[in-house]
């Protein structure tokens, strides 16, 4: 029996038509993601074919954006087929949601559960393997075609986001959900712009701005 999600799902294709049987598979797979976080109310899945004879193994790109109450989760994958890309992206999103769920439970309980050395070592190895790039990639500027006057050092993209003050733990959770290496937020402890970021050995860092005249 196929599983259906209660959340709204939209599926779009860029340079590709999305067949009905693939849409059904996506909906069934997203039902599992929804069970991990019942607050998710909207999923947007985008498929894009990127023709490049030298990178046929990564020609099919799929991105999943999940929106919930006050948070967004995002995962992306490039494979040789959309089916493979779907499984890879779903795996990334599932790991992020599980990691955030554990973090929130620890914060809510007021303590962090103690782990044995074996469990810690296993987690470090697993995260190290997951962090390794699958293949050596050559950097391609995604905005090169949109810049008319090609000069080095230009700002080619501007983004603004509404900011609600949050704790450092919440900012770390949001960073995990969107799959970035940093996250800009307003720290509720001092109401100042701050950034959490990944450091070596699976630690995190925090940068905050201060008034130079203070």
TrEMBL record:
Gene Ontology BP, a term: negative regulation of translational elongation
Superkingdom: Bacteria
Signal peptide: none
Keyword match Cytoplasm: yes
Location(s), subcellular: Cytoplasm
One cellular component term from this protein's GO annotations in UniProt: cytosolic small ribosomal subunit
Keywords, ordered alphabetically: Cytoplasm, Translation regulation
Protein function: Required for dimerization of active 70S ribosomes into 100S ribosomes in stationary phase; 100S ribosomes are translationally inactive and sometimes present during exponential growth.
PANTHER family from the UniProt entry: 30S RIBOSOMAL PROTEIN
Family membership noted in the UniProt record: Belongs to the HPF/YfiA ribosome-associated protein family. Long HPF subfamily.
NCBIfam families, A to Z: yfiA
Assembly information from the UniProt record: Interacts with 100S ribosomes.
Name assigned to this protein: Ribosome hibernation promoting factor
Origin species: Corynebacterium aurimucosum
Encoding gene, per UniProt annotation: raiA
